[in-house]
Design goal:
The chain is an alpha+beta fold and 289 residues long. The two termini are 25 Å apart. The chain has two domains: 197 residues, no CATH class; 73 residues, Alpha-Beta Plaits (2-Layer Sandwich), CATH 3.30.70.120. The radius of gyration is 24 Å and the shape is elongated.
């Protein structure tokens, strides 16, 4: 039973990595390459070599990955390294063998930049959420994340990408391309952060009431969420009041407010956005090793 569970977990990771790699391949080959954008990371260097010398993009990416992977192996760990190698092989194969078999977008460069950013952002997020990467610049990004865990992954990606994009635009004498490349990188970083950290986003309610225990039971029946009760004093009259704290998803918050108002019409409810919620009942995203 345990072995079957491990196999199912492994298969789910591989499927997500393959789906993510397919999105990256589509964004890179079917949108970015045709529009001749100076791209970021090792993919950007590989595209530059492809445009200058005709070298295969996926193969160049693998070759460039080897020294960086060896250098980051000890910091990121064996499991992360092995899954990244697997993911790198899948993505390189899809870029060189699968993506060319599908239609290539040849319309507006602006639309190509938007589609490339969204597709690649979805792809990288799917891969990062499995505790893996596509190697290359991802190794560097995850190494920085390991050292500076407070920094969002998307922000690290954007800052790391700026130099490669600028260099590619200057070498190809394409100033518009630099702007489009930065646009792709920005959209990619936003999509990555929204998908990874948005999975843990929610809302938090602070309910000031005289019937805290009753409302806690109402919330538990309504959506199965736990609550915390604080004791407080009113600032004007000095009256003792109780404060019920509840974290839940955005969908559940409407139900919580509805049930609370029905149980205690005099309750004072404050609703706040929570960019991340961790703990029982909420999904945890594992990044890196």
């Amino acid at each position: 039973m345990k072995r079957l569970l491990q196999y199912n977990t492994w298969m789910r990771r591989v499927i997500c990595e393959t789906a993510g790699s397919a999105c990256i391949a589509a964004g890179l080959y079917n949108f970015a390459v045709q529009a001749q954008f100076p791209m970021s990371g090792f993919s950007g260097i590989s595209i530059l070599l492809y445009r200058l010398f005709g070298f295969p993009i996926g193969l160049c990416t693998v070759v460039l990955n080897i020294p960086v992977g060896v250098a980051c192996y000890r910091l990121l760990g064996r499991s992360f390294f092995i899954s990244s190698i697997r993911c790198m092989a899948i993505s390189s194969f899809l870029i060189d063998a699968a993506a060319p078999r599908f239609p290539v977008y040849s319309g507006s460069r602006l639309l190509a930049a938007l589609c490339a950013g969204v597709f690649m952002g979805i792809g990288y997020a799917l891969i990062y959420m499995q505790g893996s990467s596509t190697g290359g610049m991802d190794f560097i990004v995850m190494a920085i994340k390991k050292k500076k865990q407070h920094l969002p992954v998307g922000r690290i990606i954007f800052l790391a990408d700026m130099g490669v994009i600028a260099a590619g635009g200057i070498l190809l004498n394409d100033m518009d391309g630099i702007i489009y490349g930065l646009m792709i990188s920005f959209i990619l970083s936003v999509v990555v952060d929204k998908m990874m950290y948005g999975a843990n986003a929610g809302k938090m309610a602070l309910i000031i009431t005289d019937r805290a225990n009753e409302l806690a039971k109402v919330i538990d029946r309504a959506c199965g969420r736990g609550t915390t009760i604080w004791e407080g004093n009113g600032g004007y009259r000095g009256e003792r009041r109780q404060i019920v704290l509840c974290a839940c998803s955005s969908k559940e918050m409407y139900l919580v407010c509805k049930q609370v108002k029905e149980a205690d019409p005099g309750a004072f409810v404050i609703i706040m956005e929570s960019s991340e919620v961790h703990g029982e009942g909420f999904r945890n995203v594992r990044i890196g090793a």
